[in-house]
Design brief:
Distance between the termini: 104 Å
Number of helices: 1
Radius of gyration: 44 Å
Strand content: over 45%
Shape: elongated
Number of strands: 45
Largest sheet: 7 strands, antiparallel
């Protein structure tokens, strides 16, 4: 069968003085599994083709060395049952057809009627007289000449006596010529220069002309961008210039490969970090197009910055101290020139000594050891607690819950919730430095105006005004005309280390002019982070240690000394 196809091909070529422009001998195992099938095809370099495909009305059927299908059992012509071929000439080219030749075969129950048609008339008129075994169909008519756009041919079949009856095209060839559809202008010469910038590049052509155009492919036909103006691009790729004479494009181009340098883009900013003293804190940043990273810290609220860390997108502090509380961190990310560096958002490090009191009411005993309560109970009902297994509930009209003693508190955090009951109720938070039973002062008040209905929310109260107190009690007090409860859970009190005054044993010299270096010695306390002012004017610190601070007298008379620790 393949030999017969070869004979037909040679005959057609010799007879018409044409050449094959699209041919496929169709070999291999079950070609029907591809739709369309393109393996093994040979085409003219100036056209593109679809391969051989099939319409939705038929189904592929396994057979080797042929493109086989079944379901041809329509009584009459069916416009969904066909094999199909599409040929498209490249820009500036045209197809002049001579013939279509094929070999085929049908099973005993396969189709008995066939039609070959084209998209030129919407597949309405038959071309030639196709049959099951194969023939050559003449395409030399004028309507199939000078084809400059896509054309589709369909091979229809019908009249099979069973749905399983098959028909296949075993091999095929389109004969003809592919020629230029016009006389192309001379190919461009010259060179393209690239001026890169961040995120784009500007292209310039050394021989600009209103008839030479920028293109994104070697066969492009855009006339939007003449080379008389630079061409700005923002994507990697190869770019071209091509001449156009009004009807035809040059066959050659001048090209230049461009690599765009893209800017650094921070996709995830660092986050604030809060840690307990002695642990480390890690700041992370995510960025695209990054080459290097430089982390920085400010110990003076952003007045100045110091380089720290290594060249990674992550920085981990050393073991933190309370003195590092409030330090600021940022990272400078460098990209590829000419893109500039990008600085991240500034983030804050919070260092605490950890909760000095933490209560989630997990113990069955209530109130917790050292606490006091009046008309407050422990509830294990899931709707009452923020985190299991329990919470404190204020289920009477009035109630009180008082913590055990804490020392030097800096902050109170707790979760507070209420029901959807609309009767107003109040919960006050009070602090006493006198005793667990008296001397309380209200520091915060919660009611229906600032606590959402039917939900739990976390609240924070600043207790820094009590940091110097070694004995502090915190009390939660409900006042209401309703038994609708307040729910209290996950209470944490954070404590700091109060400032300890140093005892100054000597100031040497005790007087002198501006610029005098003064040594301040302490018999107790710590002068490592101390500063000194003279009549309210800050002195320059030369050095500091646990017991000694050396400063320079500023421009004031040395009448009074104040040491601030």
């Amino acid at each position: 069968m393949k030999l017969r196809f070869l004979f037909v091909t040679i005959f057609v070529v010799a007879f018409s003085y044409s050449q094959s422009i699209f041919v496929n001998p169709i070999t291999g195992t079950n070609p029907n599994t591809s739709n369309p099938y393109t393996i093994g095809q040979t085409i003219n370099s100036n056209i593109t083709v679809s391969g051989i495909g099939r319409g939705s009305g038929i189904a592929g059927s396994n057979a080797n060395d042929r493109y086989n299908a079944n379901n041809w059992n329509s009584v009459g012509f069916n416009n969904l049952k066909y094999f199909e071929f599409t040929l498209t000439p490249n820009a500036g080219y045209e197809i002049n057809f001579v013939s279509f030749a094929y070999n085929g075969q049908a099973s005993g129950t396969g189709p008995t009627n066939f039609a070959f048609r084209s998209s030129l008339d919407g597949f309405t008129a038959n071309i030639g007289t196709p049959n099951a075994g194969g023939t050559t169909i003449n395409l030399a008519a004028g309507s199939y000449q000078n084809i400059t756009s896509s054309i589709t041919f369909r091979f229809y079949g019908w009249g099979a006596s069973a749905a399983g009856g098959t028909f296949s095209i075993n091999d095929f060839i389109f004969n003809g010529t592919v020629v230029l559809s016009c006389t192309p202008p001379a190919n461009p010469s010259g060179t393209i220069t690239v001026t890169p910038s961040c995120g784009s590049s500007s292209l310039a052509y050394s021989l600009p002309s209103a008839n030479t155009y920028w293109q994104t492919s070697p066969t492009g036909t855009l006339t939007t961008f003449p080379t008389t103006s630079p061409y700005v691009v923002s994507s990697n790729g190869t770019y071209y210039v091509r001449n156009f004479n009004g009807t035809c494009w040059s066959t050659g181009t001048v090209s230049q490969t461009v690599t765009i340098v893209n800017p650094v883009i921070i996709t995830t900013q660092p986050a604030n970090q809060a840690v307990i003293a002695g642990s480390t804190a890690t700041f992370n940043v995510l960025a695209t197009n990054a080459v290097s990273y430089q982390w920085q810290v400010s110990t003076n609220s952003g007045t100045s910055w110091s380089n720290i860390g290594t060249n990674t997108n992550s920085y981990t502090t050393p073991a933190t101290t309370l003195a590092m509380n409030g330090y600021l961190y940022r990272v400078i990310i460098t990209g590829t020139a000419p893109c500039p560096s990008v600085t991240s958002a500034i983030r804050t490090l919070t260092v605490t000594s950890g909760p000095c009191l933490s209560e989630s009411f997990s113990a069955v005993t209530f109130p917790p050891t050292g606490w006091l309560q009046t008309s407050v109970s422990r509830s294990t009902t899931a709707t009452d607690y923020n985190t299991g297994p329990a919470a404190a509930t204020f289920g009477a009209n009035n109630g009180e819950l008082t913590t055990a003693m804490v020392s030097n508190p800096t902050e109170l955090r707790f979760f507070l919730g209420r029901t959807t009951n609309t009767t107003d109720k109040t919960l006050t938070v009070e602090v006493s430095t006198t005793s667990q039973a008296s001397g309380f002062t209200t520091v915060a008040t919660y009611d229906h105006s600032n606590v959402p209905s039917g939900s739990y929310n976390q609240y924070t109260i600043n207790l820094s005004s009590y940091t110097s107190n070694s004995s502090v009690w915190i009390r939660f007090v409900k006042t209401a005309s309703t038994t609708s409860p307040w729910r209290l859970d996950d209470i944490n009190v954070y404590c700091g280390i109060p400032c300890t005054s140093a005892v100054i044993s000597s100031i040497t010299p005790s007087n002198g002019p501006v610029g005098t270096q003064v040594t301040i010695t302490a018999s107790s306390g710590n002068l490592t982070s101390a500063t000194a002012t003279f009549n309210g004017i800050s002195a320059t610190v030369v050095s500091s240690s646990t017991s000694q601070l050396i400063v320079v007298v500023p421009m004031v008379r040395l009448l009074h000394q104040e040491i601030w620790l």
